[in-house]
Amino acid sequence: MPPNVPPAAADMAAGGLPSMLGSLILVLALIFALAWLLRRVQTVRGSAPGLLRVRAGLQVGPKERVLLIQAGDRHLLIGVAAGQVSTLHVFAQPPAAAEAPPAAPPGSFAERLRQALGGGGAP
Predict the structure, then answer these.
(1) Nearest 5 degrees, angle CA 65-CA 69-CA 71?
(2) Can you tell me the mean pLDDT for 64-90?
């Protein structure tokens, strides 16, 4: 060993650096494995049947959503934004299923396109 090299630097050059890099890779792999496991556990727990269900949702902004929630036998329309949740409406009866969109007027471009694509006319 050269006389002006400290012993710690000599140990690092001799084998400490590969050991340190191996430990770093092991710790990073452990972090990613735990994150994956946590995501799996939350997915399983979130999909379990319960009294609270999200029936429908609509993104209305970059961080804002409107959700139709069923809590037991009650249906609520809630707004979710960054850091807050607001009840917009509580339904007295369960909302009806979504209806089909209204038919296009005869002779309109949408009706002619539907016929050209083989969709037939309106019933």
Answers:
(1) 150
(2) 90
Q: What backbone torsions phi and psi does residue 121 show, to the nearest 5 degrees?
A: -95, -175
CA angle 54–56–60, rounded 5-degree value:
115
Rounded to two decimals, the pTM is 0.42
pLDDT at 114: 75
Task: Tell me the C-alpha distance between 2 and 97, whole Å.
Answer: 83
Give the pair of three-digit tokens for residue 31: 């972090």
Long-range contacts from 52-55, C-beta under 8 angstroms, 24+ separation: none
Contact 67, 75 (CB under 8 A): no
C-alpha 60/C-alpha 110 separation (Å) is 27
Helices (H), the chain: 7-11, 17-46, 109-116
> Do the Cβ atoms of 69 and 58 come closer than 8 Å?
no
At 19-53, the pLDDT tens digits run: 899 999 999 999 999 998 888 776 655 555 678 88
Name the DSSP letter for residue 107.
T
